[in-house]
Amino acid sequence: MRLILLGPPGVGKGTQARRLAEYFTIPQVATGDMLRDHIRDKTDLGQQAQSIMARGKLVPDDVILAMVEARLREQDALDGFILDGFPRTVPQGVGLTAILERLSVTLDAIVSVTVHSDIVLSRLSSRRTCTQCNAVYNLVIHPPRVLGVCDACGGTQLIQREDDRPETIRKRLDVYYEQTFPLLAYYQSTGLIREVPGDGTIDEVFQLILASLPEESIRA
Ligand code: AP5
Q1: Is the Cβ atom of 110 under 6 angstroms away from ligand 1?
Q2: pTM for the predicted model, two decimal places
Q3: Is 33 within a domain?
Q4: Residue 44's domain spans which residues?
Q5: How does pLDDT run across 28-47, given as a tens digit for each residue?
Q6: How many domains does the chain have?
Q7: Atom of ligand 1 nearest to the CA of 57
């Protein structure tokens, strides 16, 4: 399964990508998580990305494309992957097409998840993220079993992301509609786009995504 998950900030891409990755036993390739790992590890790329991300803007396409190509060449991604938060601009979409050609593989589906912006604001203001393993919680619907402790790795740094402040969320939504939404037109002719409403429960959205996928790619 080779899948792109598209959608605005807070729609649930990361949550669903993790589930899909587990379901299909393939990696979740989340450019936001990869960039946050660079920031945590204080790499040159992390230092370059930090202020861009805090302002809700996008990291340059060439940096992202190099990072993703290197990741997709790793052994565990050879049989499939879930792309979460990438591509995010039409040039990234064009770059991905070239990467997939170099790898001699094709996409199975592009799942576009949608919700109203009010829901995004409410979900993101109660999100908490583990700085150690990037696990995502929600204080309202999906809190960690022990407050402040990550269920997945036991880490104790469950933080509110710097870019989850209301004014930055609004900026990220603007950036999404200006720069990412046009990807749907870019991919229109592929026939791979599946529109899935993201306003149900996490389980409901997961089932809708699975039901939207081409049967032959689920069996493969
Ligand atoms: P990134 O980390 O990719 O952020 P995003 O796309 O804005 O998406 P989010 O992580 O905010 O939300 P999500 O859709 O994954 O929702 P989640 O599952 O967490 O990017 C961050 C920044 O990095 C960018 O702004 C940019 O600067 C940079 N960047 C990243 N990729 C880039 C790229 N390709 N090019 C350039 N720059 C790039 O869910 C949100 C909350 O809702 C959680 O609390 C969750 O528990 C809850 N929730 C999920 N589903 C449901 C549900 N069905 N019902 C109720 N609550 C739910």
Answers
A1: no
A2: 0.95
A3: yes
A4: 2-115+180-219
A5: 999 999 999 999 999 999 99
A6: 1
A7: 27
